[in-house]
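Read as chain and fold; for instance:
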Amino acid sequence: MPALDLTEYLSKTISKDNWENSGFKKRAGVLFPLFTAYSKNSFGIGDFGDLKLIIDWAKSTSNSIIQLLPMNEVGPVFCPYDALSSFALEPAYVCLKDFPALAGKKFNSVLGNSGHVDYAVKAEKIKLLWDVYLALDLSEAFDFEDFQRKNAYWLADFVLFKELKDFHQGKPWYEWEDKFKNRNRDALEKFKQENIEKITFWMWLQWIIFKQFKEASSYALKNNILIKGDLPVLVSRDSSDVWSHPEFFNLEFAAGAPPDMYCAKGQRWGMPTYNWKNIAADGYRYVNEKLEYAQEFYNILRIDHVVGLFRIWSIPYGDLEENQGLNGVFDPVDEGLWCRHGREILSILLKNSNMLLCAEDLGVIPKCCTDTLLELGVCGNDVQRWVKDWNNRHDFLLPGEYRQLAVTMLSTHDTTNWRAWWQYEVGTVDEGLFARKCNERKINFAKIRAKLFNIDLSFYGRLRWRHEIDSVDKLLWELGKQKEEVGDFIDIYKNTYGEKEKLWKILNCCGAMTEEASAELLAKAVEFILKSQAIFCINDIRDYLGIAGIFKGDPYQYRINVPGTVSPKNWSLKLPLSLEELLAHPLNQQIRKMIIDSGRFSC
């Protein structure tokens, strides 16, 4: 589509006031999960004191947006997208140096300097903060009372949920005694009175987190840095939200994603889908309260999996886990309802928030979703590895071909970093997907695998095409099928064969193509994405640091998350240098120059 005058266009959308709050200008930013950071003052995990150092670093490099992953309190697998609450914040991020009484205290757990967070630190922090709490006199803590009053919608239920969960040794609420599971009023009131001190502690802890986060957010604004939060479109089945308001959820279903070329069986996330009819009947208060609390901290809010507001992949809760997302259906089933459904919910979000909303619209997205985002003035996401002309050129788009109303990036928290993608994934196909498609066509996958793919260059479940398979005719010959029988194979081939060579050319690289990504190659990729016409460019801290070769060894190991897996290495990656070392690193001047040269400098 023709280039837009974005200021003029956005000034006529429903998002006008939200854009005016942040400014109609191109910006650069960094995705910097707080748990990846550490400083000389933090204890085993990044904290709100460290967030101020991240703000200092962003300012020094001319990044004017810091994007965080969801900051809500996590459950036992520490996944921020499967939180215990849409409101309550994670206690592990409390900055202990704000409490003089804790000076010199030692942790019982071994924090060490491993490459991943040991989440035992959370229990250790809570234990220390319990001692602080017991020594307090809160009789005249009027700010604490004000916090409770303003957050009455969610806070009382959440702290009761927390203490009940401890009482039931961490079991999910749907396995509690019936009187607690089904929220018997008398039983809950009795439990509350018997455990009032601990319940008040959980309230106090949320107040402390609120104050520290609010202070860090204010520090960012003073330094002309915008904080971008992340609102998961779903919440854990075992959450205070679902326990408190089961009528707002379809508990007979588990949300997920349909199969695609990157995930052969699709995905099953496990969270229940929303009962939007009941949420609407309550005046969308549940949604509005979430927004009101989030905007205490954030200037911009990322709506995770925005297509789920239009239609969500719903898998019967009793379906076998091994089937992942294979047996799901879209809700609503009627495609004709998707556009109205998504537009109505997005409009509610926009009308009830002063934050600028951005949407994660990756994957298989119906046109009604992208059209609605543009109509409402909401940025989508453009990830360089997937921004291609899939149907004609089968090649990567140039910077001037990106969407203007978009947040663009090299990588996401769910992907490999760019160096690992270049080395292991570009020019490959998903082995599981290819095998399933072969089985569907009665093609012997084991036999065909070595004929089509270079096994010596195939790693981590990705298959690299042999150079000799340099035409569709050769592909068809090896498959032993007619063109009409394997149109999907042809599409996969056209969009993956020779990808590496194509991108090497687009990045204006000289000489023979390299299998591994050098620092110079990564720098070219960063410069390329910064020069796109997208209004925002927010790169993962891993990709920025990769320019200086800070990550050693196999780049594939530096993952924030591997979707569809549960592992202690998910959501726990730590940077290989402290924030103090990062602030003094010569790389900062290189990043600053690239951002200024791209026209994204923001005073």
Summary: The longest strand covers residues 226-231. The longest helix spans residues 196-222. The chain has 24 helices and 19 strands. The two ends are 31 Å apart (CA to CA).
